[in-house]
Structure formats: C-alpha cells, structure tokens
Design a protein that fits this description.
The complex is a heterodimer of chains A (116) and B (109). With 116 residues, chain A is an all-beta fold. In chain A, 0% of the residues lie in helices and 51% in strands. Chain A is globular, with a radius of gyration of 13 Å. Chain B is mainly beta and 109 residues long. Chain B has no helices and eleven strands. In chain B, the strands form two sheets. In chain B, strands 2, 4, 5, 9, 10 and 11 form a six-stranded mixed sheet that branches. A five-stranded antiparallel sheet of chain B has the order 1-3-8-7-6, with no helix packed on it. The termini of chain B are far apart. The model of chain B has no long low-confidence stretch (mean pLDDT 93). Classes of the chains: A mainly beta (116), B mainly beta (109).
C-alpha cells in the first residue's frame, strides 16, 4: 500500500508556543489530505480537509486561525497548532488520498502532542 | 443526520471467532471501511466493501448489506495481538468518511 509519513511522532511544547506537524505522501500524489484529532478512548474527529493548492475546509467548531493547514504541494501538508494550550493536547493524525477514483485514504503514524 | 453505530467493547477468547457489527446512516454511500487501531497508534486499513456480500482476507472477513445499512467484521482464530479497537467508517456522497466510535476488542487467553 501507499505510504504516508507524519512527523514528529511525539512533541512536547510549552503553552503559548506553536507546533508544526508535517504529513508527506511518499510514493503517490495526494490530491486530498485529511487532518484528524483523537482524544483518549474516542474515535477520530475530522478537523479539516485540504486539497492541493486551495484553502482547507474546516469542520464546524474547528478554529481555522488556531489550526493552520497548508497543502502547498501534492506530497506535503502541514498542520500548525498556534498558541497551543494544554487542552490542545491530543493525538493528531493525517491521512492522504490520491485522485477521485481512489477509495482508500492512507494514514500517517500520528503525532502525540502534549502542551505543558 | 449521519450516524455510525458499533458496540463499545467486546470480549472474546484466544482461538475463537468474533463478529463486530456496524450499522450506518449516511447521505449517499460510497463504501464501508474497517480499520484496526492499537492504542497510541494510527488506524491501519483492514477492508473495504462497496457491494453487498462477504469479502474474505485471511483471518478477517467483512460483510456488507447496503439495503440494511449494515456491515460486520469477522475475525477468526483470534490471537492476542488482535486486541485493539476496530473502527467502522462509511464513505458518504462526498467521499467523506463518517467514523464510528470504535469497538474495543479484548482477547482473553
């Protein structure tokens, strides 16, 4: 299957700082990337969908100014958590999909963010 | 509205068979996915069904009934490493995935 690499896998940051998470498709062109967060013992919650070269579409309740998403190329999308607070501590996961005919989205390894 | 239902937790014995059910209601339908997720890790793909019937892949099989909005994941010859959460996700008319809350499967020796 296709490979999606997410980096870093774990990050600890101080409250008020910003953290950038990268998601790369290594062997295919990802026209669409999805960003999820997952709290302990809960399912994935879609935060936003981004298509290469256009602005991300955010789900209701997700602050676009706080969670900045950039999908500048067909192989890279980034999520920046700005002015992080302890309540932003969570597991963030990206997934990537190729063209419209592709049914399966491939997941990155996830990033465990802890804000102290 | 769009909704996915699956049991919260199930327990089974090593070597046995377990069936995890999932019912869904979506705006349009473009297939049903099953993912396995171990604690602290990202989900890994198990199966995809878009046509009615049973798809078998080794010890895992997945079934879909579109008319009933129902799917199940069948795990045979259970191993301890199968202890994980199993996520059901339906693809809607926009190819967005609607996720269930996951079923935590506990395997006992």
């Amino acid at each position: 299957g296709a490979v999606v690499s997410q980096h870093p896998s774990r990050v600890i940051c101080k409250s008020g700082t910003s953290v950038k998470i990268e998601c790369r498709s290594l062997d295919f062109q990802a026209t669409t990337m999805f960003w999820y967060r997952q709290f302990p013992k809960q399912s994935l919650m879609l935060m936003a969908t981004s298509n290469e070269g256009s602005k991300a579409t955010y789900e209701q309740g997700v602050e676009k100014d706080k969670f900045l998403i950039n999908h500048a190329s067909l192989t890279l999308s980034t999520l920046t958590v700005t002015s992080a607070h302890p309540e932003d501590s969570s597991f963030y996961i990206c997934s990537a999909k190729g063209g419209e005919g592709d049914t399966e989205a491939f997941f990155g390894q996830g990033t465990r963010l802890t804000v102290v | 509205g769009q909704n996915i239902d699956q049991p919260t937790e199930m327990t089974a014995t090593e070597g046995a068979i377990v069936q995890i059910n999932c019912t869904y209601q979506t705006s349009g339908f473009n297939g049903l996915f099953w993912y396995q997720q171990h604690a602290g890790e990202a989900p890994t793909f198990l199966s995809y069904n878009v046509l009615d019937g049973l798809e078998e892949k080794g010890r895992f099989s997945s079934f879909l009934s579109r008319s009933k909005g129902y799917s199940y994941l069948l795990l045979k010859e259970l191993q301890m490493k199968d202890s994980a959460s199993y996520l059901c996700a339906a693809s809607d008319s926009n190819y967005q995935l609607i996720w269930g809350a996951g079923t935590k499967l506990i395997i006992k020796p």
